[in-house]
C-alpha cells in the first residue's frame, strides 16, 4: 500500500510532541509540519532534525502578533535550509494580531521570494481571498498549496487557474461546493491537527486513514490514497 501523506500538521502545538513524532514515524506517514515563526522552525529543527517522514516548514503566520521585521530577516536567512514554507498567509477575520497592511507587505515579500526559489508553500487565507489572489497571480508560484480554503467558489476558480493545489481535511466535507470544484490532480490531504476533528475526534496521527476514508467517500474516489500520492509526487518534482 502507498503511504499516507499529511500536507499540513502542527506538531509543536501538541503537548506530547515527542510521543506524536514517534507515532508518525511508526505509522510511516509523510507529514509536513507547519511552524508559525522562524524561531519555532529553528527549535523544531534542533529538536528533531529532518527525517524521512517528518519535514518541517518555515513559517510566518499572519495571526502571530509577536512577529517583527527581524523575524522576516531571519526567515529569509533560513529559507535556503528547507524546501517547505508554511504556515504563511493572510487573515483579515480577527481584530487582534498583525495589522492588515503589515500582513500584506510581509506576505507579498514572502511569496515573491519563495516563488523565485520554487519553494513548496502552504498558505492560509481567511477573509483575504481577493488580495491573496492578486499577490499569488503576480508572482505565479509553481508549488503553492491553499490550505483549508473557506472562501467563495469564484475566487477558488482563480486560485485553480493560477495552478494552486488545495489541501483538504475532514471538516471540509460539509462544503461540497468547494471540495467538488478542486481538479483531481490538484487535491492533497491535510489534517491541520490539532485544530481539526475526524468524526468528532480531535486529530491524532492514527486518525489519518479515517480522514482519507471520509474524504474518499464524500468525493466518491476509492483510489484516493494513490491519487494523493501521485499528486504529491508531482508537486515534489515540479521545477
Ligand atoms: Zn494550520
What do these coordinates show?
This protein is α/β, with parallel strands linked by helices and 239 residues long. The protein has one domain (5-237): TIM Barrel (Alpha-Beta Barrel), CATH 3.20.20. It has 9 helices and 10 strands. It has helices at 17-27, 38-48, 69-78, 100-116, 129-139, 153-161, 176-179, 208-219, 224-237, and strands spanning 5-9, 30-33, 54-56, 84-91, 120-126, 144-147, 165-168, 187-189, 197-198, 201-202. The chain has a 5-stranded parallel β-sheet with strand order 4-5-6-7-8, with helices on both faces. Helix 1 links the parallel strand 1 (5-9) and strand 2 (30-33). Helix 4 (100-116) packs parallel to helix 5 (129-139) and helix 5 (129-139) runs parallel beside helix 6. The longest helix is centred in the middle third of the chain and has 17 residues, at 100-116. It is globular, with a radius of gyration of 17 Å. The protein binds zinc ion (ZN). Zinc ion binds next to loops.
Would you identify the CATH architecture?
A: Alpha-Beta Barrel
* Cα distance spanning the termini: 27 Å
What is the H/E order?
A: EHEHEHEHEHEHEHEEEHH
Spatial shape: globular
Amino acid at each position: 500500500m502507498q503511504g499516507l501523506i499529511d500536507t499540513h500538521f502542527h506538531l509543536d502545538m501538541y503537548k506530547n510532541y515527542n510521543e506524536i513524532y514517534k507515532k508518525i514515524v511508526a505509522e510511516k506517514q509523510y507529514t509536513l509540519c507547519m511552524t508559525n515563526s522562524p524561531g519555532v522552525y529553528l527549535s523544531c529543527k534542533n529538536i528533531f532534525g529532518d527525517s524521512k517522514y517528518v519535514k518541517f516548514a518555515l513559517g510566518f503566520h499572519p495571526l502571530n502578533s509577536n512577529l517583527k521585521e527581524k523575524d522576516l530577516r531571519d526567515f529569509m536567512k533560513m529559507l535556503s535550509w528547507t524546501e517547505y514554507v508554511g504556515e504563511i498567509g493572510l487573515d483579515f477575520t480577527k481584530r487582534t494580531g498583525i495589522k492588515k497592511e503589515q500582513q500584506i507587505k510581509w506576505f507579498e515579500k514572502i511569496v515573491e521570494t519563495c516563488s523565485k526559489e520554487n519553494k513548496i508553500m502552504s498558505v492560509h487565507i481567511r477573509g483575504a481571498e481577493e488580495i491573496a489572489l492578486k499577490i499569488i497571480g503576480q508572482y505565479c508560484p509553481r508549488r503553492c498549496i491553499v490550505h483549508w480554503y473557506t472562501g467563495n467558489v469564484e475566487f477558488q476558480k482563480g486560485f485553480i487557474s493560477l495552478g494552486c493545489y488545495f489541501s483538504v481535511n475532514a471538516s471540509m466535507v460539509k462544503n461540497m461546493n468547494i471540495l467538488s470544484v478542486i481538479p483531481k490532480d490538484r487535491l492533497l490531504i491535510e489534517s491541520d491537527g490539532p485544530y481539526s476533528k475526524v468524526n468528532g475526534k480531535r486529530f491524532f496521527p492514527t486518525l489519518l486513514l479515517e480522514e482519507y476514508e471520509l474524504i474518499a467517500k464524500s468525493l466518491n474516489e476509492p483510489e484516493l490514497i494513490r491519487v494523493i500520492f501521485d499528486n504529491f509526487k508531482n508537486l515534489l518534482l515540479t521545477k
